[in-house]
Specification:
single chain, alpha+beta, four-stranded mixed beta sheet, 34% strand, globular
């Protein structure tokens, strides 16, 4: 887990050309293990930041 915001939101931070489905599984595992409901996978290697954000809700 890269960042935990306000003890509520898990953020995984990346800066890669292509996203990998392993990171989806990783953030879902973090959410389940910590009993959190909201997580974001954020890729900073995009032209528009909104294109690099993926939200996960349990």
């Amino acid at each position: 887990m890269d960042v935990l915001v306000e003890d509520l939101v898990i953020c995984e931070i990346k800066a890669v050309d292509e996203m990998n489905s392993v990171w989806d599984a990783q953030i879902l595992s973090h959410l389940k293990l910590t009993n959190k409901r909201l997580g974001f996978l954020i890729n900073f290697n995009v032209s528009l930041i909104k294109d690099g954000i993926k939200r996960f809700i349990l």
